[in-house]
Sequence to fold (260 residues):
Amino acid sequence: MKGDDTSWLDQHFASWKKNIYTVNDPSAPLTVPKNKGREAMPFLTYIITRYPTLPHTSIFIHSLRYQWHNEDPMYDGIPPLTHLNLSRVQARGYHSLRCTWTMGCPAELHPTSPSSDNDDRSQNERAWASVFSTFFPDTPVPEKVGAHCSSQFAVSRARIHALPLEKYVQIRDWLLSTPLPDQISGRVLEYMWHFIFGMGAVDCEDAGTCFCEGFGLCGLKCSERECEKRYVLPQFATIPNGWPEVGPGENGWPAKGWAD
Fold:
């Protein structure tokens, strides 16, 4: 969003090529046709625009340094990017920037048997099956869909190019025209990226393996789903003002130093 502080990217990743899309500013150097579908619109616009000139690896992230979905004890976006094993991204093709199963795994959605509730999740389940059939009419709708949440991931050029440019244009055209509200259309794609980029309907890697091979954090005490002191889901999604210097321990956030 216009006004978001993205200076941390230049400060800590000066040698990386950044493509920063400002979704609510038509005059920005990089922008989108319409601010719709949350992060899905800039992600798709980047792919469509850069399709002939994609780098070896593309990393898709949200704009702010501190966000609840960053896989770090202090929700800091720098450590996951610093430690990401790009060789493993190339070998795997697609790699989430999260390893913990909290939200998304082992099965976030059941598209063929959606809940009868009317909350965002059940609406997303019902929409997901229809949208999937539109994009992939020759593929049966999966019974279960699972992936590490939050739409931050790395993808190889080869895996993006496995689908033709026209497919990404189709997906963006759908996003531009769908009457679904942003929280539904965005989440439909949030739990479809891994499939679009060639993974199975359920892509829930063992947390310890993900941390070790994906980020070099080996020797952690882990279960299949999580590793101790790496991540706690906060009660609220809004970072306290002044985080991490001011405000920890309030609004459902862990106290500063909880992972020391």
